[in-house]
Design a protein that fits this description.
The chain is 40% helix and 14% strand. It is of the alpha/beta class and 219 residues long. The chain is globular, with a radius of gyration of 18 Å. Helix 4 runs parallel beside helix 5. A 6-stranded parallel beta sheet has the order 3-2-1-4-5-6.
Length: 219
């Protein structure tokens, strides 16, 4: 089938991923902002990647922190760290991103990263003209339940673009599941960090680069 709309995950698809060490240091910095320095390393890990609202609540209780206040600070601090990585040239767009200018579809972004981070990267790399809409997370604990594979942000992007036949391009199984939950097709892009990845779920398409979308979208 042909597609009139393509939605992209951001990190690992359009731009390179941020080093986990950078994110972990930013999480430690967040705790330090609240004068918490004697930390269980597992709690730092839990608050860096994949945190659930329940985990945020439990860990904040242990350190006598307000969950919403802590999480807003955490998202702000991690976003600023990623912005610095981009300014320093350590987080950059993939070389094939320019091919999107010739992709004759509506285009959007749905990321589990912060909205502040998504907006900054689009502006910093001057690529916002490629996309008709772009969603990241709000800096709230509640937004964690709306991350992929929940289709919440994906459905909002599809509505913004008046999509009739859409494709979601990602580099994680959660992306493939989010597409399934939204009732649309998916493409798994094999960036270097996913070259030998084995699936537990199966995408509609398995592609090597963004260039392949010209073929896919007219198949």
């Amino acid at each position: 089938m042909t597609y009139d709309t393509v939605i992209f995950d951001n990190d690992g698809v359009l731009v390179g991923r941020t080093s986990f060490d950078v994110l972990r240091e930013a999480t430690q910095e967040t705790f330090a902002q609240f004068d918490v320095t004697d930390l269980d390393p597992d709690h730092v890990e839990d608050m860096t990647i994949g945190a659930t609202p329940a985990q945020v609540g439990d860990i904040c209780d242990l350190y006598d922190l307000d969950p919403e206040t802590f999480w807003r600070a955490r998202d702000r601090t991690l976003s600023r760290a990623q912005q610095e990585e981009a300014r320093a040239g350590r987080k950059t767009p993939y070389g094939d991103i320019d091919t999107l200018a010739d992709l004759d579809t509506a285009k959007g972004i749905v990321s589990s990263n912060q909205q502040e981070t998504v907006d900054f990267l689009l502006d910093h790399f001057d690529i916002s003209d490629h996309f008709g809409t772009a969603y990241g997370r709000e800096p709230t604990v509640e937004s964690l339940d709306l991350r992929k594979p929940d289709p919440h942000y994906l459905e909002r992007a599809l509505a913004d673009l008046d999509a009739e036949s859409a494709l979601f391009v990602g580099d994680n199984e959660s992306d493939i599941k989010a597409a399934e939950n939204a009732g649309i097709d998916s493409a798994f892009i094999r960036r270097p960090h996913r070259r030998d990845w084995d699936f537990n779920v199966y995408p509609t398409w398995d592609i090597d680069s963004l260039d392949d979308l010209h073929r896919v979208c007219s198949a």
